[in-house]
Structure formats: C-alpha cells, structure tokens
Backbone:
C-alpha cells in the first residue's frame, strides 16, 4: 500500500492544482511553482513508499525541465537535480539559471545507461510525437532498482487541448488549433500535430504493461495525478478513464541485473 503517496492525494490538493492551471499562459510562475513543489513532494512520497528512501542524495533527472521552476523544489530536499530540455527558448523563458542544465532530446538522452536514481517527466509526453520512445530512453538512464515516473495529460480529458479550450479538442485537434488562431490572431503555443499530440490513457497503460512483459521493469503504480486517492479506481475503467483521469502517472521500477526476468 503506497501510504505516503495516498496521504498526499487529498481533495484539497486536487482543487489547488486544478485552480492553478488557468495561470499557465497568463502568469506561468503561478502555475509552475506550485506544480514544481507538488512534483517534488510526489516523487519523495513515491521513493518512501517503494524504496524506503528520500530524495536526499538521489540523482534526479527531469526530462523536459522547462524554464527551471522545478530545480529549487528538488534541491531543497537534498536531491542532485539535472534538467534536460530540447528548447533553448523554454530554458530561458523565466530568466531562471539552473546550473548543470542540459539541452537534449528526451528520446535520445545524452547520458550513459543507469545514470540516475530517479528519472521523471511531468506534462511532456503529450508534446512529443512518440512519447513511448521517450519513456524507453528514460528507463535506459534509470539505475537498476531506481524509479522512472512518467506523468502526462490525457487527450480526451478536459485539459487535453491545453490553452485551445475545454471542449474544442473533442471536435478535433485541428479544429481546436485553427479556432484558437482565428480568435487570438496567432497560433497557440501548444499546436496540435506539431507540439501537442493525441495521447490516450490506454496507450500509457499498454506501454507500462509491455515493460513487464519484456522483463525491463516492474509497474508499481498507475494513478490520476490530480485526483484524490479515493478516485484512483478510475484508471481501471476502460473508456471512462479517457475522459476523467485527466493526467496519468505511470511509476515503474527498473529491474536489477540479478533479478530473474521471466
């Protein structure tokens, strides 16, 4: 039973995170700072539950670290934090300097195998054309026995269209993109087909299960990030989960070399 992780997943936390989403475009700091703190708390809770350790002294890789809001939250907990981000503009957007930050592609991470105790990605998978290739490379650089955490926005959830609206993406990604451009006079930051893709809950669960089938990792948890713990059951219900999970968290632990990989 993941006691620490479930204790963190309260209704109050859920409402706080959902309220902050509206600031993502207008005032990014009001969105990303609380999200960064929540992410660090979540990763630490997962470590406590699954490995009996904390973030102190852990090597942590943030795939898609963005403008750097997450660095302080992890370093305050004693982690050795390294962000990797493909977009130079995104890295400099908030004017935050993060020592040791790396420019790189999440699907081709510039690190040797098994370099990090924890490798995580928050709200990035829906922005890359092949999120599972990114997930595979995240697992490659995870140390044996370490945690790989992939959290992403589900397309058919209410926030699947990002800033293009709460309903428009249900008509179609192209429709939502074009409608936004007509209304605002410029394309959205998250443009369907270029920087925003249709990623389902089912596909993530299938990928996670395939890791076990291939003897690469143990699936530890799959749960909706912004939901209280009493609503985690939604992940187990086909179709319903696509609309109500909103953000899926996949947590796997990489097999140690001495483990039997049946």
Residues:
């Amino acid at each position: 039973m993941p006691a620490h992780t479930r204790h963190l997943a309260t209704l109050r936390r859920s409402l706080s995170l959902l309220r902050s989403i509206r600031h993502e475009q207008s005032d990014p700091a009001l969105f990303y700072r609380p999200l960064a703190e929540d992410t660090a708390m979540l990763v630490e809770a997962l470590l406590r539950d699954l490995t009996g350790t904390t973030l102190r002294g852990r090597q942590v890789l943030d795939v898609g670290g963005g403008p750097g809001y997450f660095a302080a939250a992890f370093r305050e907990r004693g982690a050795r934090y390294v962000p990797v981000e493909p977009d130079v503009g995104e890295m400099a957007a908030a004017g935050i300097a993060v020592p040791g930050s790396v420019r790189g592609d999440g699907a081709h991470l510039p690190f040797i195998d098994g370099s990090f105790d924890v490798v995580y990605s928050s709200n990035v998978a829906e922005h890359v054309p092949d999120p599972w290739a990114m997930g595979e490379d995240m697992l490659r650089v995870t140390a044996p026995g370490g945690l790989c955490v992939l959290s992403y926005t589900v397309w058919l959830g209410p926030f699947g269209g990002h800033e293009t609206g709460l309903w428009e993406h249900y008509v179609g990604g192209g429709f939502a993109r074009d409608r936004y451009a007509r209304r605002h006079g410029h394309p959205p930051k998250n443009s369907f087909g270029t920087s925003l893709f249709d990623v389902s809950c089912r596909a993530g669960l299938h990928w996670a299960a395939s890791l076990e089938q291939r003897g690469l990792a143990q699936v530890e948890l799959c749960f909706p990030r912004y939901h209280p713990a009493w609503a985690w059951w939604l992940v187990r219900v086909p179709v319903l989960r696509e609309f109500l999970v909103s953000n899926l968290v996949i947590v796997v632990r990489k097999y140690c070399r001495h483990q039997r990989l049946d």
Observations:
- The chain has one domain: 3-119+130-154+199-254.
- The mean pLDDT is 89.
